From TrEMBL:
<dbReference type="GO" id="GO:0004665">
    <property type="term" value="F:prephenate dehydrogenase (NADP+) activity"/>
</dbReference>
<dbReference type="Pfam" id="PF02153">
    <property type="entry name" value="PDH_N"/>
</dbReference>
<dbReference type="InterPro" id="IPR050812">
    <property type="entry name" value="Preph/Arog_dehydrog"/>
</dbReference>
<dbReference type="InterPro" id="IPR036291">
    <property type="entry name" value="NAD(P)-bd_dom_sf"/>
</dbReference>
<dbReference type="GO" id="GO:0008977">
    <property type="term" value="F:prephenate dehydrogenase (NAD+) activity"/>
</dbReference>
<feature type="domain" description="Prephenate/arogenate dehydrogenase">
    <location>
        <begin position="3"/>
        <end position="273"/>
    </location>
</feature>
<dbReference type="InterPro" id="IPR046826">
    <property type="entry name" value="PDH_N"/>
</dbReference>
<protein>
    <submittedName>
        <fullName>Prephenate dehydrogenase</fullName>
        <ecNumber>1.3.1.12</ecNumber>
    </submittedName>
</protein>
<dbReference type="InterPro" id="IPR003099">
    <property type="entry name" value="Prephen_DH"/>
</dbReference>
<keyword id="KW-0560">Oxidoreductase</keyword>
<dbReference type="GO" id="GO:0070403">
    <property type="term" value="F:NAD+ binding"/>
</dbReference>
<dbReference type="InterPro" id="IPR046825">
    <property type="entry name" value="PDH_C"/>
</dbReference>
<dbReference type="GO" id="GO:0006571">
    <property type="term" value="P:tyrosine biosynthetic process"/>
</dbReference>
<dbReference type="Pfam" id="PF20463">
    <property type="entry name" value="PDH_C"/>
</dbReference>
<dbReference type="InterPro" id="IPR008927">
    <property type="entry name" value="6-PGluconate_DH-like_C_sf"/>
</dbReference>
Length: 273
């Protein structure tokens, strides 16, 4: 079990992980390239070291390095750690897994991919909280047996439930259940803004629920969409087929068919939470 964890990226997820590890009695240090993020993290007083200098961060000698930055920045960070010949176990929190695991393998790093299935539409350390991760699922991908065992125990210690899978399979699944829902939420907002932004005045609870995630961070989500483009693109095609089917039934005023379709999905959704 790691005793000192070094977190790279002190935003919503890095901050929440740091607070949860600190609460579990594990020492944490933090590195971020943004002085604003560091200033925000200083106030909570949980970090042994907080710096924008990678060498100072590595001098803390963490026995686990946890990367919690957007995926493209994550790859740059991995390259920097590779150049510095870091042998420490490294994991990450990025929402896509195949590219980052592949890059880590190419660099010969001791890496196991990770993705906490917890989050919110707001970013930054100020919005982080230890409780965000409690009870949530954590996915581990493509690590060796020993790394998976260490990371499994660590995440269970902070109240998470762990599942292990291949990075490519992770990206296929999360392309459907997470990336695509964000895309259609952004697209719905785009539709309204294109028609007439004054229409927003008439929106109610349904619209609010559906578009909560459209308030998410542009860097994070453009990274996710471009990194997982193939899987997301396949889901878009399937969804267009489904929408066309609904359109046809609506145009034909096929009420019994529409009722059957709605009953089918509505009961599945009602049983879900
Ligand atoms: P965030 O915007 O809240 O924080 C990112 C932090 O990383 C910022 O403080 C930023 O300054 C820092 N950063 C960016 N590039 C850096 C670099 N090159 N070196 C050092 N620091 C750098 O983002 P977040 O919501 O915490 O997301 C972090 C990662 O976690 C992303 O990869 C995201 O896909 C993943 N994730 C997010 C959520 C969510 O709901 N927000 C959920 C699960 C996983």
């Amino acid at each position: 079990m790691p005793e000192k964890i070094g977190i790279i990226g002190l935003g919503l997820i890095g901050g929440s992980l740091a607070k949860a590890f600190n609460k579990a009695g594990i020492k944490v240090c933090g590195y971020d390239k943004s002085i604003d993020s560091i200033s925000s993290a200083v106030e909570c007083g949980i970090f042994e070291v907080l710096t924008d200098d990678m060498d100072e961060f590595l001098d803390f000698n963490p026995d686990l390095i946890y990367i919690a930055v957007p995926v493209n920045a994550g790859i740059e960070v991995l390259q920097e750690l590779g150049h510095k010949n870091v042998r420490t176990l490294i994991t990450d929190a990025c929402s896509t897994k195949a590219t980052i695991c592949y890059e880590a393998g190419k660099l010969g790093l001791n890496f196991c991919g990770g993705h906490p299935i917890a989050g919110k539409e707001v970013s930054g350390f100020a919005n982080s909280e230890a409780e965000l991760l409690k009870g949530a699922l954590h996915i581990l991908t493509d690590g060796d047996e020993a790394s998976v065992e260490i990371l499994k125990k660590l995440h269970e210690k902070i109240g998470m439930k762990v599942k292990v899978m291949k990075a490519e399979y992770h990206d296929e699944i999360f392309g459907v259940v997470s990336h695509f829902p964000h895309l259609i939420s952004f697209a719905l907002m785009e539709l309204i803004l294109k028609k007439d932004k004054n229409l927003l005045e008439y929106t109610g609870g349904g619209f609010k629920d559906f578009t909560r995630i459209a308030a998410s961070d542009p860097v994070m989500w453009s990274d996710i969409f471009t990194d997982n483009s193939e899987h997301i693109s396949n889901v878009i095609d399937e969804y267009i087929d489904i929408l066309n089917d609904w359109k046809q039934q609506i145009n034909k005023k096929e009420k019994p068919v529409l009722m059957k379709k709605i009953r089918h999905v509505s009961s599945a959704r009602q049983c879900l939470y």
